[in-house]
């Protein structure tokens, strides 16, 4: 008679295996969603003031100071 691994694994082993499969599938879905982002998401700023708040130049200088 062939031994059954179903009964040898136990409930804890099957629970760990189930959680591992769920984690693997969740990571695959997350990775695919990161590779192919939703087309409805916008990457552009919502308002022109958003660009004005970004200070990319040198700090302003005041007259008389060196």
From TrEMBL:
Q: Where is the composition biased (Polar residues)?
A: 39-50
Mark the transmembrane ranges.
12-32
Q: Which top-rank group of organisms is this from?
A: Bacteria
Identify the stretch(es) annotated as Disordered.
39-66
Q: Where is the composition biased (Pro residues)?
A: 57-66
Keyword annotations for this protein, in alphabetical order, are: Membrane, Transmembrane, Transmembrane helix
What name goes with this protein?
Uncharacterized protein
């Amino acid at each position: 008679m062939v031994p059954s691994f179903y009964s040898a694994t136990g409930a804890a082993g099957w629970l760990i295996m189930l959680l591992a499969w769920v984690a693997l599938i969740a990571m695959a879905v997350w990775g695919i969603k990161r590779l192919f982002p939703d087309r409805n998401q916008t990457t552009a700023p919502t308002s022109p003031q958003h660009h004005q708040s970004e200070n990319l130049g040198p700090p302003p200088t005041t007259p008389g100071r060196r």
